[in-house]
């Protein structure tokens, strides 16, 4: 094989290693992002529960003030 062939093969190997390393880093970052999204999803669920409680309290207050049930 000529020196040019070895250069092409070596360059190809270096490119493949760079791509593999990049993919591994991206996968790690994606896993972190998925974890953060799960945390945010949990926070949203907890906020919904709190909002539902507040809505119930406001409904009761509205009934107490007006003396009737809202439809």
Explain the layout of strands and helices:
Blueprint: H1 3-66
Describe the structure.
With 71 residues, the chain is mostly helical. The protein is 90% helix and 0% strand. The protein has one helix and no strands. The protein has one helix at 3-66. The longest helix is centred in the middle third of the chain and has 64 residues, at 3-66. The radius of gyration is 30 Å and the shape is rod-shaped. The chain starts with a helix and ends in a 5-residue tail after the last helix. The mean pLDDT is 93.
What does this entry show, briefly?
The chain has 71 residues and is an all-alpha fold. 90% of the residues lie in helices and 0% in strands.
What labels would you give this structure?
about 70 residues, mainly alpha
What letter string, H or E per element, gives the SSE order?
H
Note the main sheet: none
Number of strands: 0
Percentage of residues in helical conformation:
over 70%
Number of helices: 1
User: Quaternary state, please?
Assistant: single chain
